[in-house]
Amino acid sequence: MDKFNSESLIALIERFPTEQSCREYLSEIKWSKGYKCRKCGHDQYQLRQDVSRCCNKCKTIESPTANTMFHRLRFGLRKAFMIMFEMGSSTKGMSASQISRRYGISRPTAHFFMHKVRSVMKSSKSEKVTGSVVIDEFVLGGKEAGKQGRSYDTKKKKAVMVIELTEERKVKRVYINKIDDFSSASLMPLFEDYVDMAKADITTDNWRGYQPILKKGYKIKQFLSDKDMVFKEIHTMIHQVKSTIRAIYSFTRKEHTQKYFDEYCFRVNRSQFKSSILHKLTERMASAQPQTWKQIMISA
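Now predict its structure.
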C-alpha cells in the first residue's frame, strides 16, 4: 500500500479528500495480513462498494471500522485522521475544546475520541533504555497548606520519569509512570518495564527509595539533585510535561493522568519520525479492540 508519510497538513488533505479514501486506507491496514471472517473463519469474500468485506460462506458483512478503535465513530473517518495527525505531530498537544471548535464536533465526543487515541500511544515496552539513563520523581499540582517535600498523604499527582541520553547528552527516549507514592515498591515497575539492567548506567538523586532497587542489581549512581548539572536534561523534560498539562489541558483527572503522560512520551520518542505518525497511529487503532465510553472515561 501507499503509506502516508508527511508532516504537511496540506499533503494530508490532498491524500484523504473523501471519506471513501479514508475507508480504503483503513481497510488496507486492517486486512494487511489477509481477511478472515470473524463469525465463521472463512477467508474468501466479496468486496463491496464501500470497501466492506462480505464473507462468501456466511454472508456476514464487516466494515473497515468494525471491531477497531474506530467502531461506532460518531463523526467521519476524515475528521478522525486529521485529529490523530494533529495529536501526534503537534509539539505541545491540543485540548478537547480546541479539537471541538476546529472540527465541529461536541467537546465530550472530542474528549472521548482523543482518549481512545491516547490509549494506543502507550509504549509497547519492547525496547528498554540503555547507556546513559537518568531517573527522577516529580509531582503535578500547586502548593498545599502544611505540606512540604515528599508528603505521603499529599493530594498531588505523583510520577517518576526515565530518560535515555545520547553521547551528546541529548534526550533520545523518555518514559513516565504515574505512582501512588515515592516508595521503592512504586518506583520499581518503571525499572522493570523500561530499564535494561545489564546495559544501563543510571543516575538518580539521593532519595532513599532507590536503595532497595540498587540491591537488585541495577547500576545506580546517586547525587544531590540541587547541586549537580547531571540532572539538567531531566529537569527540563519534567518542566515541559508540567507546562504542557497546565497550559493545554488545565486540569486532568487522576484516572487519566497516565494517558497524558503516554501521549507526551509518544510525541517525544517519535519526534524524528513525525512523517509516519499518522500511519503508525492508524495501525494501532485498527489492531486494538473497541472500547466503550464506560471503559475509557469511567473505568480508567
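The CA atoms of residues 35 and 43 lie 6 Å apart.
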